[in-house]
C-alpha cells in the first residue's frame, strides 16, 4: 500500500479510501486492536472505514487502560459509552469523582485499578462491593481510600464498614494511607482469614495461588506506624498471603510498644507462602528508622521465609552486614533485593559467600557501599536492574563489569562519584540499557554526555529514558548532543540544570529526523527549576511542537510566573497532556507526590 492509501487518500473519496474499503474488516480490526487508545482515536479520524472499524474495536474491548493521562468526566463518558464489553479497567481518577467511577461499575468487571483518587471518598467502596460481585483479581485504590484525606477526618467505623463491602473474591488489595488502628481493625475484620482458616483447614496442604479456595493473596498498606500488633494481625488473619507490602510514614519517632521489633518480624514467618515481602519506613515526614529491629530479627525472618523471591527493606538502621547477608544466603530463590537507607550495610554483605541469581538489585542511599560491591553484584549474569541511587562511593572503576551485563536494561548511579570517564565506559558497553539515571553526579559535564553517545555501544540505540538532573555541569551543549545522537529517548529529565536555556527547548521541539528515518519524540520532559528558560519559551510548548508529549514539568521556572492563562491554552490544545506546575519528580509518582494545586488539569473540580 502506498503512502497515500495508508493515509486514507486525503480527499475522503480518493484512491486511498477505496483501497481501505476493499480490505477485509477482520484485517483492519486486527490491526487497530493492537493500537493504543490515543492512536486508535487518531486513526478513526482518517476515514469513514477506519472510523467504523475503530468503533467495532472499542465495542469489543475487554481491557481498557486509561492510566497514561487524566481524563475528565466528559472524556471518560465519551470513551466508555463505546466500550460495552469491559472486564478489566484501569483509570487515572485525578479529575474524577465518585459518580464517574460508579458509571462504569457492573457485574462484568473482574479487574479494577483506580489511580490518583484524590477526589474519591471511601463511599465509593460501597458501590464497588454492591455492583461488582465478580471482582476477582485487582482492587487497587492507590492513595484514594483513606481515613484522612487532605486533613478531613473520617470515623474509623465508617471506614471498616466500607472495606467489608469489598467482594470476597478480591485477590489483590492496596489501601493507603491508613492509621495503624484502622489497619489493624480492618485486618481483624477481614472475611478472608476467617473463611480460609476454618476448623477443618489444614496448613500442611500444599498451597496453589490460583486455587479458587483462596481469595486475598496480595496485600499492600501504607500506615502511620508499622508495629508488632499489625504483623501479628496479618499472621493470624491472612497467613496465606503470597505478597505483603507494608510502608509507614511516621510524623515522629515511634515508641515501644507501638513499633516493629524482632518479635513482630518473626511473626511474619508464619506466613509460609510469602514469595514477596516489602517493609519500608519512609522519611517523608521526618528522619526515622526501625530502631527496634537488629540482625537477630533478620536471622529469624530468613530462617522461616526461605521461599522469598523478592525482598524490599527500608530504614533498618540497626541491621548490619550479617543481617542482610542472612536474607541473601537463606533465600536461594531470591530474584529481587532492595535495601534503602541502611547506614550499616557495606561491601561485606556481598563478599562472603555465593549470591543468589539476582535479576533486580537496588541499594538506595547506602553510604558504605563501594565499587567492590558492584563488581561482586555484576557477577550475576541475569541482572536486569541495578539501582545504586545515593551510593556516593561508587566510582568509574566498576563500570566495565557493569556494562558487560548482556541483560541489564536499567542503571541508576545517581549521586555517585562517577566522572565523564565513567560515561565513556558506559558508552562503549554492550549492555542494552534503556533507562539511565545520572542525577546529582556532580563530576559529570557536557563532555561526558558526548562520550556516552559516541562510544559505539548499545546505549545509543537502546536508551529510552535519561535523567541528568541536578548536575551543574550540564548546559545546552549536552542537550544538543542528546537531540542529535539519542534517537530513542522518550523521557528526559533536566531539572535543576541552571545553564539550560531556550536554545535547548528549541532543539528538542524541532523533533529532528535521524538517518534511519526516526525522530526524537519526547513523551515526558522535566524542566523543573531550569531558571535559564525565559518566559518566551512557553511558545515552544504549544502546537505544533512536542506533539507526542504526555507529561511536562515546569515548576519553579519563569514559565509559571506568566500565570495560568498560557497553561489553559496548552491544555485545551492537548487534553492528553499532564502539566505539573509543582516540584514533583518525573510522572508525579502516580499523581500523589504533590498537592492537587501543583498539577494543573483543565476541568479539575
UniProtKB/TrEMBL annotation:
GO terms for cellular component: SCF ubiquitin ligase complex. Residues 23-63 form the F-box domain. Pfam families: DUF7885 (PF25372), F-box (PF00646). Coiled coil: none annotated. It comes from the Eukaryota. SMART domains: FBOX (SM00256), LRR_CC (SM00367). InterPro entries: F-box-like_dom_sf, F-box_dom, FBXL15_LRR, Leu-rich_rpt_Cys-con_subtyp, LRR_dom_sf. This is F-box domain-containing protein. It comes from Rhododendron griersonianum. GO terms for biological process: SCF-dependent proteasomal ubiquitin-dependent protein catabolic process.
Amino acid at each position: 500500500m502506498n503512502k497515500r492509501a495508508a493515509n486514507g487518500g486525503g480527499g475522503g473519496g480518493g484512491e486511498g479510501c477505496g483501497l481501505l474499503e476493499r480490505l477485509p474488516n477482520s484485517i483492519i480490526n486486527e490491526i487497530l486492536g493492537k493500537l493504543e487508545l490515543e492512536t486508535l482515536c487518531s486513526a478513526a479520524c482518517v476515514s469513514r472505514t477506519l472510523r467504523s472499524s475503530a468503533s467495532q474495536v472499542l465495542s469489543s474491548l475487554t481491557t481498557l487502560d486509561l492510566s497514561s493521562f487524566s481524563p475528565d468526566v466528559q472524556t471518560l463518558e465519551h470513551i466508555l459509552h463505546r466500550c460495552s464489553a469491559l472486564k478489566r479497567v484501569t483509570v487515572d481518577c485525578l479529575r474524577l469523582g465518585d459518580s464517574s467511577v460508579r458509571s462504569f461499575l457492573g457485574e462484568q468487571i473482574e479487574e479494577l485499578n483506580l489511580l490518583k483518587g484524590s477526589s474519591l471518598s471511601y463511599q465509593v467502596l460501597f458501590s464497588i462491593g454492591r455492583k461488582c460481585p465478580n471482582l476477582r483479581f485487582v482492587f487497587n485504590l492507590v492513595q484514594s481510600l483513606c481515613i484522612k484525606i487532605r486533613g478531613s477526618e473520617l470515623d474509623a467505623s465508617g471506614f471498616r464498614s466500607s472495606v467489608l463491602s469489598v467482594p470476597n473474591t478480591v485477590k489483590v488489595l492496596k489501601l493507603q494511607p491508613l492509621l495503624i488502628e484502622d489497619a489493624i481493625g480492618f485486618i481483624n475484620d477481614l472475611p478472608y482469614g476467617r473463611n480460609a482458616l476454618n476448623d477443618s483447614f489444614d496448613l500442611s496442604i500444599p498451597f496453589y495461588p490460583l486455587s479458587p479456595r483462596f481469595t486475598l493473596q496480595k496485600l499492600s498498606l501504607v500506615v502511620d506506624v508499622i508495629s508488632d500488633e499489625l504483623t501479628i494481625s496479618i499472621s493470624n488473619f491472612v497467613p496465606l498471603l503470597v505478597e505483603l507490602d507494608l510502608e509507614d510514614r511516621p510524623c515522629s519517632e515511634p515508641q515501644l510498644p507501638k513499633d516493629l521489633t524482632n518479635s513482630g518480624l518473626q511473626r511474619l514467618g508464619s506466613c509460609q507462602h510469602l514469595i514477596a515481602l516489602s517493609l519500608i519506613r519512609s522519611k517523608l515526614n521526618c528522619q526515622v528508622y526501625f530502631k527496634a529491629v537488629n540482625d537477630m530479627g533478620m536471622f529469624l525472618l530468613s530462617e522461616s521465609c526461605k521461599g522469598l523471591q523478592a525482598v524490599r527493606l527500608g530504614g533498618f538502621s540497626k541491621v548490619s552486614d550479617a543481617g542482610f547477608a542472612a536474607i541473601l544466603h537463606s533465600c536461594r530463590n531470591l530474584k529481587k533485593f532492595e535495601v534503602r537507607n541502611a547506614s550499616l550495610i557495606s561491601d561485606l554483605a556481598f563478599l562472603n559467600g555465593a549470591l543468589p541469581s539476582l535479576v533486580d538489585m537496588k541499594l538506595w542511599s547506602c553510604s558504605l557501599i563501594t565499587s567492590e560491591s558492584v563488581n561482586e553484584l555484576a557477577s550475576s549474569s541475569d541482572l536486569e536492574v541495578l539501582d545504586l541511587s545515593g551510593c556516593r562511593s561508587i566510582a568509574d572503576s566498576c563500570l566495565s563489569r557493569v556494562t558487560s551485563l548482556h541483560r541489564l536494561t536499567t542503571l541508576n548511579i545517581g549521586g555517585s562519584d562517577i566522572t565523564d570517564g565513567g560515561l565513556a565506559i558506559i558508552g562503549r558497553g554492550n549492555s542494552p540499557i534503556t533507562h539511565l539515571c545520572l542525577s546529582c553526579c556532580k563530576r559529570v559535564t557536557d563532555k561526558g554526555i558526548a562520550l556516552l553517545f559516541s562510544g559505539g555501544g548499545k546505549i545509543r540505540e537502546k536508551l529510552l529514558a535519561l535523567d541528568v538532573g541536578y548536575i551543574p555541569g550540564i548546559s545546552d551543549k549536552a542537550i544538543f548532543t542528546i537531540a542529535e545522537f539519542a534517537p530513542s529517548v522518550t523521557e528526559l529529565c533536566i531539572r535543576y540544570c541552571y545553564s539550560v536555556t531556550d536554545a535547548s527547548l528549541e532543539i528538542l521541539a524541532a523533533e529532528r529526523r535521524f538517518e534511519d528515518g526516526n525522530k526524537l519524540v519526547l513523551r515526558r520532559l522535566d524542566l523543573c527549576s531550569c531558571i535559564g528558560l525565559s518566559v518566551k519559551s512557553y511558545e515552544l510548548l504549544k502546537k505544533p511542537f512536542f506533539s507526542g508529549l504526555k507529561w511536562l514539568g515546569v515548576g519553579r521556572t519563569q514559565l509559571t510566573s506568566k500565570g495560568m492563562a498560557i497553561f489553559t491554552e496548552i491544555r485545551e490544545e492537548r487534553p492528553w497532556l499532564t502539566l505539573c506546575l509543582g516540584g514533583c519528580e518525573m510522572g508525579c509518582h502516580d499523581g500523589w507526590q504533590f498537592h492537587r494545586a501543583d498539577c494543573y488539569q483543565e476541568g479539575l473540580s
